[in-house]
Amino acid sequence: MIYLDNAATTNPKPRCVCLAAATALQKYSANPGRSGHEASQRCAEMVYRTRVKIAEYFHVPDAENVVFTPNCTTALNVVINGLFEPGDHLLISSLEHNAVLRPVYALTKRGVSFDIVDISEDPQQTLQRFRAKINARTKAIVCTHASNVFGVLLPIAQIGALCREKGLLLIVDAAQTAGTVPIDYTQMQIDYLCIAPHKGLYAPMGTGILITDARPAPLTYGGTGSASHLRTQPDFLPDKFESGTLNVPGIAGISAGIDFVQAHPGLYQSEMRQMKMFYDRLANTPKVKLYTRRPQTDCSVPVLSFNIGELHSEEVAAKLNCRQIAVRAGLHCAAAAHRYMGTEKQGTVRIAPSIFTKDQELLYVADCIHRIAKNA
Amino acid sequence: MNKELIYIGSVTQAMKGRDLLKKNGIAAHIERSAVDLDTGGCGYSIMVVDENRAKAELILKRHHIIKGNGSKAGNP
User: Fold this and answer.
1) Are B44 and B32 in contact (CB under 8 A)?
2) B42 interaction partners in chain A (CB closer than 8 Å)
3) Which of A120, A172, A227, A338 is most buried, by the most CB atoms less than 10 A from its CB?
């Protein structure tokens, strides 16, 4: 199989990640932060070391700001549900995944309003559009770092500077970028960073990371192994947001995933080179529709959408699947992004490589698309 | 030299505190605290020798790991 659905989750996982997760089921099979016995302490130590590693990797000042969640969607829900009051106003981008759009939309029932800012492939224009929609009640910008459908990279550092200038919070959905594109939480002036480590960090599925302060109200309440005599949730990090037993094998996998990515510098540039090559092949194929400019380093991530004539994207994906090529079609849980790009009826076929994708595989896939287009 | 326990609560905070103390040349270990409703229920403590306690508390306060005198002495 040629797997090009890496924007959903990376496949295969590196051997070191598989080994770390499997080993954790034996070596760390205890509940961290709950007991004083050696196994629990050993497990807690591994979890803590992983927090430190994540903090260093994303330039977060303190390891206690690293919160483990079941996925990136939960991380976004913690922040979006926990920060805003009736009367507050938010800005989101036109390329949001439902992980942002749905919780923000749900807030409207609690008196919070929002506006959608149209994203341009010109970062300066994007920035101007955000600036133009800020009003006196605007409290935050909630936006993706990169579109999970079209690969457009948002100018987060500049948006962060705008937020500081205007006194707004910046909440970033880094599902498609963490591990692929360098993220400096401090320099980019991000307040809340939501991460899907099972994508660009090659960690196991069922893992998420939230970089946060203690301001949001908790989304879940329960046992934390601390301050147990109180009926109220602890107010300190990370316990405030980590009720219940942690996904220890997943956390061990995150640790190994970061090691793996750090051992392969230049991954982003390499995948971008592949995307440019693939884009050029498709651009010369009759009936193939592309929706963005040629992928460009610092303006795109290695995610590309296309269609063939009037064929539904799911039909194209099925034809590719018959050739043992795994891609994602449809709306990619991002109907708003498709509406913005005018692809909501047809959906798109999405291609996303990983470190394991070979040039000749992409050339073969381009050739298959060419043949499907010829017969369409 | 008696050993003293500085009550922390969260295991993450305790490990962060332990690492900070070690960086400052103070030997420190983590222990699970006995349930004590006066000091914050179940949680974790950092164990130091009594002669280092004042300096350790100062470092931990400076890094907001402990607030006031939320610690208890012990001689395990």
Assistant:
1) yes
2) 225-226, 228-229
3) A172
